[in-house]
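Two records follow; treat each independently.
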Amino acid sequence: MAKEIERKFLVDDGTYRDLALASIEIVQGYISCDPDRTVRVRMYGDRGFITVKTRNTGAVRNEWEFEIPSSEARDMLAEACRGVLSKTRYIVPGDDGLSWEIDEFHGRLQGLVIAEIELPEEDHPFTRPGFIGREVTGDPRYYNSNLVAQA
């Protein structure tokens, strides 16, 4: 069973764009938004994925992700998802060997920018870049599965 250990933060300014090594467009939707078992379909650039996640316990939860044919992912996004959101993801290297993923949301969520960092252990130390603002880990208002209703 795969574990995801992730912390989330709001972003204070756009300086991350100049630090980014890459960016990619993401479109994702949810077949299930049940907090005990979310099921997400995602187009990550031109690649399709389906992901199942369990409820968070702090910054930790179970996660299973599988690549699927992009044509099937697009069909699921159009036919099976309760809502779809789009965002641009920027990958920014951290000073400590970890990477930050900064998501700029589009559409009705325009202006919302959230940074995430995946950690090898829940208490693993990391350095916060200057653009990192208030922590929102565990705040359901910032779960993508809840944001999709506003997209």
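The next record belongs to a different protein.
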Amino acid sequence: MNDKIRNFYRTFKKSYMIFFAALFLAAFAVLFLRNTIPSPDRAHSVFKYVLAVYFFLGTAAVVFTVKKTQKLHIIFLVLTAVLGLAYFVAVPLGQVPDESLHYCRIFEISEGCLFTPVVDGQAGNDLPKFIIDRCGSYGDIIELFQTARLDDASREFLVFPTSALYMPLVYIPQAIGTFLFRLFTDNAAVVLYGARLFNFLAGTAIFYYAIKLIPYGKLAIVTIALLPMVMHQSVSASADVLTNALSVFSVAYALYLAENDSALKKRQLALLASALLLLSMCKIVYFLFTLLVIILSNRRFSSKKSAIAYKICVPTAAVLLNAAWFLYTSRYFFATNEGVNITEQIKFVLTHPLQYVNVLVRTISASAQRYLETMTGCELGWLDVPCNYLGFGLAFLILVTVLLGYSQNRYSDQTKITMFFIFTGTILLIFSALYAQWTPVGNDVVKGVQGRYFIPLLLPLACFIPQTAPNRGDDAVFRYESSGRYMIYLLMLFCNYITIVNIFAHFLK
């Protein structure tokens, strides 16, 4: 009798537990939906029923995929498709930080203007005024669809010095989407969603190949890519989409090449160099990622001389490219806040290094919790959409669990040291850049730092922090992705469902 019970339990656990868990989480998400979004009229009630059905269908699609395959890049595509569509509908146009300013840069690039002109001391261009609209509700989006047309009569001089600082390559996916959609329509809303769509597809494709190529710890990338904050950004036209995806791909591809025993091919080296250089162009504070070339063994190159040349040329090229762009775009610099002076701030740091160290310690100790919360997704939109702890809190716990179990036990000490240096050095660059550009001279804390700036550093962090995953027999690597831990997928789906409900509740006015 006991043997029958044990066999039944094993069969149930192996074949049916996933269905029970999925049904429970989907039902809980629907219950949260019912209690969070009010139903003042029939339209709201119908919307809630439609969203509830979507939650169940999305969960069913994920369960079906997990039962059919354990390939994480395939599971990731299904999860991203289910959540991406929901976020697309939930997040109104312009409701991602600086998205309207990014639209300006995207639109002028789509028209062939790669460098923003300066008119009367202001960086801007003659663009359709609708592209800077921030839709505060879904009614605003409907009105934009009905009234906004991209004709010459709607144009005016728009100022966007912050996005003018970005290199044109950062906006290639969005600009292509804008150009193609304008061939078929002059509806401003449709064109702006076209920019979002192509940006989303590009980011998803890069994450997909990163998951496919990284030698161990594929689930770490899946978890990072599915964080509510990352998903929220991924459906926007923001340059952060490419930044997040390229940072993960660069680490994954460098590890893939480092762990492979065959000779390095020219196209592989070219692809890694291109990814690293493009990442440094997205935001200069991430140029230390070019040091990933160090982890490639010299014996894998055609000669020691070519290995040394490659490892010197890639970081040097990143520095030179950004230095040249910095000199060109210095005409776009402006005082972001009262008391800000970049030159004087740099002088202050150089002449008072110990005082600057105190500034960093004070800032991090006072705001560490907020950085972690906003990195995960406690506040979306323009940091004015509060989200439930059940969403971003659960996502944070999953992230910590997965990163601590990341399968990097076989990585060399050189690799771990390099990742540590990239992680700590980039954090210092982020704080220093915002201290110079956003903070009054000599201020006792750094202003303008947001948790989303640290998302690109999550995978390097996972590569050197102490691991808690147990060994299995002779295998020194514990692979989450081969152990059937489907609950991770369901929980990430669930916490994003909760976040999506919070977004809808905020903008349903």
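Discussion point: The first strand starts at residue 118 and ends at 119. How would you locate this feature using only the token line?
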